[in-house]
Amino acid sequence: MRSYWLWLPLVLSPLAQAMQVLDDVSLAGVSGQNGISMETTGGGWSAASVNYSQDGQTLSVKGVSSRPQSGASVSTTSIDVVGDQLQIEHSASPSVFSVENIEMAGSGKSFGSFRAFYTLGASLKLKGGGASGVSGFAVGDSKLSLTDVTFYYRDNGFDLIVKGASFDTYLNNAYIDIVGGGSANAVKLDLGTSRLVANIAGIGLDLAHGDPVPGVLATPGAPDTRDANASRSFGKLNMDLRLGGSISIGSGGASGEGLRITPNISIANSLFQYQDEGVLRAENFAGTLSSTSGLSIDLEQDGVGSYAKVAFQDLKINATLGGLIIGNPTNQKLGSLAFDLNFIDQGAKQNWLKLRAGGDPNSGLKGVTTDLSWNLANSSVSLTDNGSSIYFSGLRTNGTGQFSFDLTKSCAAGVSTSCYAGSQSDMSKGNYNGHFDGLRFGLNNVKGSYSFDGLRVGSAASPLQGGTELLVLMEVFPAYDFTLNGQLTIRPGGSVGDGLRYNADFLVTEGNAALTVDENGKGLWLSGTSYDMHFRDGSLDVSNNGIELRKGTYWSKLDVSDVRWGDRTAGVSLGRIVLKRYEQGSTLTLSSGGAGALCVGASGASSSVCSAAGGRWEDRGNEGVTVKLKNVFVKDTSTVANNQVSSNEKRNQLIVETDRSTDANGKAINGTGSQLVLDNFYTSDGNPSNPDANTYGVNADLNLDVAPTRVKLKTGANAGTYVTPDPLGFAVNGRIHFKEINVERLQNVHPTGGAVTAMYGIKAQNADIRANLTATPIN
Fold it and tell me: Which of 110, 282, 642, 692 could disulfide-pair with 321, CB 3.0 to 4.6 Å?
């Protein structure tokens, strides 16, 4: 039996208090002349349990209540008829809505609990007729508002806190109708010309069990006994969305009972802004969210337990971030960044997620676990720079895996009931499996892949070309297969002010990454790859300089079993490569604004000087993207015998291995061939008065633009002449510079003879390499 009606108190609770038999005292507060005005006073309501049952499964919401924040709840509602409209004005005193537990019936695990402090207001103007003018009703010039909102989500005794939030919804020319017929009936909301204005002053965490009464969530204004870092924030968020389209809700899930939600929502001429010290702002945000078959919601059960499943056979997401600014509000604009994403089921590649109660097994009984399957086909990402566009065309990705969500606390200060420790709690080790303070996202056996067909410059119908290889320096590969395990734990507050700090561990196995690849999958592949990565005390900020990612202490090991030319699995092997990195103070900064005006083919700060030097002056406009990477490689001070190769995981080392023996299946056996080892390389500032100074690192400055460039014909009757007009291309202006790179030794290693140091003490100093590359279609 379905139990939809049990949700009614949750949906209508603020207004439902007026729907009761009134005694004489209450009637004294009712007046009417041209309408009705009611004032109600009460202590709120509560329910021990609210259950939703469907196909034999039950979602249970425990300890539901709505109460005044202090004293008695007072609400005022006036109802009037003006012309052909029913006008309702509602205001209420501050309230608190809480849920003690959300669980699947029969499970000892929980999705967690929450509590919301808020003030509700409404001004509604309704009339009959709906969109058809016959049935349903219309909403015009109306407003719903939630103000002074503080929201707590509690997981295993820790709180995620949304502070200083407000939500104002303006409805105009909106309609609510019953559409379809028979089993296809649905409630359809036509949004008309609606608007949503949302503001969030901050999102923080409280990991201190700071409630005055155990098990009771903190109340705004109560003594502050929270975590000392609870005042730090992930940042501020502001949205002003102008909405259109419709959304329909009907009965029946993917099978049997359930719900089906069919969105056809549009956003136009809207504002999106994230604010830290700097801003991430789209001054013209637009897009659509649509599905033909709709999203089905079902309660189901498998061998693991009960879950809520959301599935969709098709979902199209189109978004354009126009007038995009990253960093200082006065910065030049990036241009427009657009996404055209098409999720669609294709045989075994499907789109669904299963929400299960309880997070990571080592994180208590609360939290959320999600089994996920996705398939994105025939999609693209585009960048428009001064009116010219580049398309990362033919984007495809699919995969499956499990993700967990928990609020966790580190056991670094000692194991206790309030923290979660693994079997190996030394944070300096790569196989650390404990927990850090913060919001933890776990990844378990995520098997996936992605690929781009290539670039199209000018329009989505332009010839397909290469050029994605120019992004490999940022470890963005044209194609990648992987199995991913690990965790990312974030905390509010960046290196300065708002933002976030993070600790992370990722392990990629069964990886195949393309350095360059064509549309047939042929290219240069890093095949049979494992990639072990660890980040400690990193941070992410949006400052006036742009998006600043600090890697903190970082160490990794990339082990490529075969560098293959041709096919990713059967191409000719060029040997094995192992790259270990140990870094401290490395950064990546992304900001809006590209190369601007520059000299190509020579050096010169002006057009005349550039031309005199034999170069060409190009003005690539005031839009684009600037990327700055700095890698600070740290010296390993441990000692290693000359006839050995260091196995220290925190050491910068490059190993090239060839001529390996093979097993019975013809697969190369690592460690059996000849090796060339570039051991213990590190950067330095090259300062004789302070030889330990190491802050400059190896820098790569990249300016990305879409711009025309000169292309000379190499063959044919017009060989030697330039193509006219200058074709558009994906332009990368790059500079690599460092003060000093040191290599402790270069070793030759024989599988039976051991290691021999061929060179000791190598230095490279004061390099400044500049390059300007533009990828254009060959034809």
Answer: 282
